[in-house]
Amino acid sequence: MTHRIVIVGGGAGGLELATRLGKTLGKKGSAEITLVDANLTHIWKPLLHEVAAGSLNSSEDELNYVAQAKWNHFQFQLGRMSGLDRAGKQIQLAATLDEDGRELLPARTLGYDTLVIAVGSNTNDFGTLGAAQHCLFLDTRKQAERFHQQLLNHYLRAHAGDQAKEKISVAIVGAGATGVELAAELHHAAHELAAYGLDRIKPQDMHITIIEAGPRVLPALPERISVPVHQTLEKLGVKVMTNASVSEVTADHLKTANGEVIEAGLKVWAAGIRAPAFLKDIDGLETNRINQLVVRPTLQTTLDDDIFAFGDCAACPQPGSDRNVPPRAQAAHQQASLLAKSLKARLEDKPLATYAYRDYGSLVSLSRFSAVGNLMGNLTGSVMLEGWLARMFYVSLYRMHQMALYGTFRTLMLMLGSRIGRGTEPRLKLH
Fold it and tell me: Which of 237, 269, 301 is the endpoint of a domain?
């Protein structure tokens, strides 16, 4: 019987792994590769802040799982994992409903010989009062599109209203990469919307506030990166509040622990992550306090050699450190590359390689205004980048992701099509 490898989660890491294994093991018939995801299409998660602001049309940059499976010799199953039977080597998939709540696909089980879990993470609101009810999140394409529609609705109402001066207030909780990139992208969107005639709300009348519980923006990155980012945000008119933890969220404001009130019509929570709740102690597997599956350096779960986990949903130790591998896109890419080799070695009864995280630096985009970051390498050490050059390196990260999925030729065609489309489409999504 052909060895069955089931990969749950079609994010950047899971999709890249399925594509790599399909091109090798799947094409040769050495294994049957199946990718499971709750959506029919994929969009690179670091781009969701651009979808939210409207500077990226998600329908043009999405990848269709069914087509990708056909082109790369793996199978795709639409479904959301809801349970695990380790003894029977099966995963349970919840029923899939359509937009009207009718059952599209029934609940079912899917057998595996090797299971890889790569379901990513969700935003962690830390149980803050009112956050789940009144804040928007940017974990999925639908959530990003919902934010964009609400933003656009403000402008459309103002454009059709009376002559009273209109303004819009946006509060972003969390000054990590998502928070600061969203703030800059929204500032850019304000200028573009005004340029297209929706100018009842002037760019200076969009009030953007970032609230960060820590002492500085980008707390996970070096201070030499966070300082210029903070300065750029303030030049753009973004209000940055540090050492300010949010204690309560209501329909029209946020309250900090020290009693300060921030008025906001739109509220985005972009602070902290946790793995999906269904993973918590799933069928006896070891998990941590944020639901991540605890894995060994081989990326195998601590209690089951036939189950691997990687990316944001896995707690993987860093050699020589008491910390786990950070939940970053480059880590998921590295782990997918390792697993593509490890799963082939496993079929050949060869020992598995261990994963050691390599930090190649960090890049933060501030829309068209700037980009800041550092690149790290064996020859160059740490090189600080700012401005146009940093922006080019930032864009190249997405192109590298596309090349892993599409190959060089098709990625070049996508780049060419994108360049041609700039002359025939608005610079901002207006619907």
Answer: 269
